[in-house]
Design brief:
This protein is mainly β. It has a single domain, classed as Galactose-binding domain-like (Jelly Rolls, Sandwich), CATH 2.60.120.260. 12% of the residues lie in helices and 39% in strands. The protein contains three helices and 13 strands. The longest helix has 14 residues.
């Protein structure tokens, strides 16, 4: 009978949305991090910007991050969704050179790797790096950047360390001056570059202009994780 067949169907899994970056509702979760005390920090502000509750970043030959811890099950919610915007790309940036390692907007996801994914050489390398850069240096990181010239989905190690993979999420000025929405499968990316067992431990955002001595103006909003087949859940832009 029909009702018997319906009763026998398995229950559909409920969609899950893990909000990690609505800055106006979670201000205490985010803390500014100054990686190098000799570099001028950025200026961060919360504002309603063209109908979006956002974190605004002013960078002028400066660099600091706004960061928060993560406790996300990437198997259940592997996709990171967010909104961002830039006034313009950094014209003199070049991700292939240390003196050009700047971006109009940058999203970091940092990871902890299991011991099984790290050989003796990598553990030694990380220990030495932390002696120089500090104990908070992650085992690995994905950097999604708004670049000035490289094609979207260009993926290569950072010029300073191969523990940070640079991923061009958006490029050029075609979408500058307005909010754009992004979607990225973090689990797929970290599996490709580091380990399927990596655990996401931190999310950070910034505009980065200390190497080129240029300036940048960016905004970030509405970070959330969703399932692989689930749509992003962006709130409507306010009139």
């Amino acid at each position: 009978m029909m009702w018997t067949c319906l009763w026998a169907l398995p229950a559909l899994a409920q969609a899950t949305t893990e909000w990690v970056g609505q800055f106006h509702t979670q201000p205490s979760a985010w803390q500014e991090v100054q990686l190098n005390k000799d570099i001028t920090p950025n200026r961060f502000e919360h504002r309603l910007w063209d109908g979006v509750q956002a974190l605004e970043v002013h960078s002028a030959a400066s660099m600091s991050l706004m960061a928060r811890p993560l406790n996300i099950d990437l198997q259940a919610t592997p996709v990171l969704c967010w909104r961002w915007r830039v006034d313009a790309v950094i014209a003199e940036a070049n991700m292939n050179q240390r003196q050009g390692d700047d971006y109009a907007a940058r999203v970091y996801v940092s990871f902890q790797l299991p011991e099984s994914a790290m050989g003796l050489g990598l553990r030694t390398k990380l220990r030495l790096a932390r002696a120089i850069w500090g104990a908070d240096l992650p085992d690995a990181a994905l950097n999604y950047v708004w670049d000035n010239q490289h094609p979207v989905d260009t993926q290569q190690p950072n010029v300073y360390t191969d523990r940070a993979m640079m991923v061009v999420q958006r490029s050029g000025n075609q979408d500058a001056g307005r909010w754009v929405e992004e979607r990225r499968d973090i689990l797929k990316d970290v599996t490709r570059h580091f380990s399927a067992q990596a655990r996401a431990v931190q999310l950070a955002v910034t505009a980065d202009s200390d190497n080129t001595r240029q300036s940048a103006h960016a905004g970030f909003a509405d970070f959330h994780f969703v399932g692989a087949e689930q749509a992003c859940q962006f709130p409507p832009i306010q009139p």
